[in-house]
Design a protein that fits this description.
Layout: H1 2-15, H2 23-33, H3 37-50, H4 53-80, H5 91-96, H6 104-119, H7 122-141, H8 147-168
Helix pairs in contact: 2-7, 3-4, 4-6, 6-7, 6-8, 7-8
Length: about 170
């Protein structure tokens, strides 16, 4: 098991760009933040306020799903208690949530992609399917997660998205 943990840390280190100024770091930072729950919840509230009945329903389903997922992920994180990789970037994440497994951003991104694929519109689902793995990769690149945190989060997001999609569909 120790060998796997060391391999995970090494692969995560190789993907890291947080300390390397430039366009790739900027892009990774933007992508890493694009999965923030507050960003999505604000957008969904706006969508609920301006959308028609179908869009209001979608916004409500997605917002409820984000909140439910956050509670479940935090329970898992505080049970496992894996510390985040050392680093400077992402102080807000490091201070409010010092645990890294699983990546809540990866769970949320994949869950949203799966839900939007099932709820529609399909074009938005396709965009989120492309976006979701980039969020997870960016979290590793910015040094706030190990690769295994993100991979586990993506699997968990698939499961939660599938279950919630079946419930709400």
């Amino acid at each position: 098991m120790q060998e796997l943990i060391e391999l995970d840390a090494e692969w995560s280190r190789r993907l890291r760009v947080a300390e390397k100024p430039g366009a790739l770091r900027t892009l990774a930072a933007v992508m890493a933040h694009s999965g923030d729950s507050w960003f999505w919840l604000i957008g969904l509230v706006i969508l609920w306020m301006v959308g028609n009945e179908v869009w209001r329903w979608r916004a409500l389903v997605l917002a409820i799903s984000i909140v439910v997922m956050a509670v479940v992920v935090m329970a898992i994180k505080f049970t496992i208690r894996r510390r985040r990789p050392e680093g400077e970037w992402g102080a807000i994440y490091r201070n409010t949530d010092p645990h890294s497994f699983p990546s809540g951003h990866a769970v949320r991104a994949v869950m949203l992609a799966v839900l939007v694929i099932s709820l529609g519109p399909i074009w938005m689902g396709v965009l989120l399917v492309i976006w979701a793995p980039l969020v997870g990769l960016a979290r590793v690149a910015m040094g706030v997660h190990y690769l295994s945190d993100v991979l586990a989060g993506m699997v968990f997001g698939l499961v939660i998205g599938g279950v919630l999609g079946a419930v709400f569909w």
